[in-house]
Automatic annotation (TrEMBL):
<dbReference type="Pfam" id="PF03392">
    <property type="entry name" value="OS-D"/>
</dbReference>
<keyword id="KW-0732">Signal</keyword>
<feature type="signal peptide">
    <location>
        <begin position="1"/>
        <end position="16"/>
    </location>
</feature>
<feature type="region of interest" description="Disordered">
    <location>
        <begin position="128"/>
        <end position="164"/>
    </location>
</feature>
<protein>
    <submittedName>
        <fullName>Chemosensory protein 13</fullName>
    </submittedName>
</protein>
<dbReference type="InterPro" id="IPR005055">
    <property type="entry name" value="A10/PebIII"/>
</dbReference>
<dbReference type="InterPro" id="IPR036682">
    <property type="entry name" value="OS_D_A10/PebIII_sf"/>
</dbReference>
Length: 164
């Protein structure tokens, strides 16, 4: 599973200050990219993954990301802003928890010899610990959940009441 950390570098391609060889304008135009829209929509996320895996068509953003991957993997995230690091970690956590098979596939494609595993090991370990902590925390009931529970209790109680 440690090879999964390579996808962190893939995400950095959209958000990081560019390493040598990557067009700065290409990457900076995605500083305000809505990553939550992608992560919260399985169809859109699946399309990005298919693009990166050469299994489907790419959006402009997907093409730019794919084009940047080799340089980003080599250059790392040394010049990333805190926001860029935060977005990268968010994507990693999401994929570790929700799409682990895609993590493995992307890692095998973009780091087949495992040369970037050690480079990104610290980031991966941090994200993995946070993801594990989040998955252990009980989910808090929402207003809708509370109302459904109340309706269910009321319905059960009225069903038990003697009929007149």
């Amino acid at each position: 599973m440690k090879s999964v950390c390579v996808f962190a570098a893939l995400v950095v391609a959209c958000y990081a200050a560019p390493p040598a060889g990557v067009d700065e304008k290409l990457l900076s135009k995605y500083d305000n990219f809505d990553v939550d829209r992608v992560l919260n929509n399985d169809r859109v996320l699946a399309n990005y993954i298919k693009c990166l895996m050469d299994e489907g068509s790419c959006t402009n953003e997907g093409r730019d990301l794919k084009k940047s991957i080799p340089d980003v993997l080599a250059g790392g995230c040394d010049k990333c802003t805190e926001k860029q690091k935060s977005v990268t970690e968010k994507v990693i956590k999401h994929l570790i928890n929700k799409r682990p098979k895609d993590w493995d596939r992307l890692s095998k494609k973009y780091d087949p010899q495992g040369q970037y595993k050690n480079k990104y090991a610290d980031l991966y370990e941090k994200v993995q610990k946070e993801a594990a902590k989040e998955s252990k925390e009980p989910s808090k009931p929402t207003k809708d959940t509370k109302e459904t529970t109340k309706v269910t209790k009321d319905t059960k109680e009225s069903a038990k009441a003697p009929k007149a």
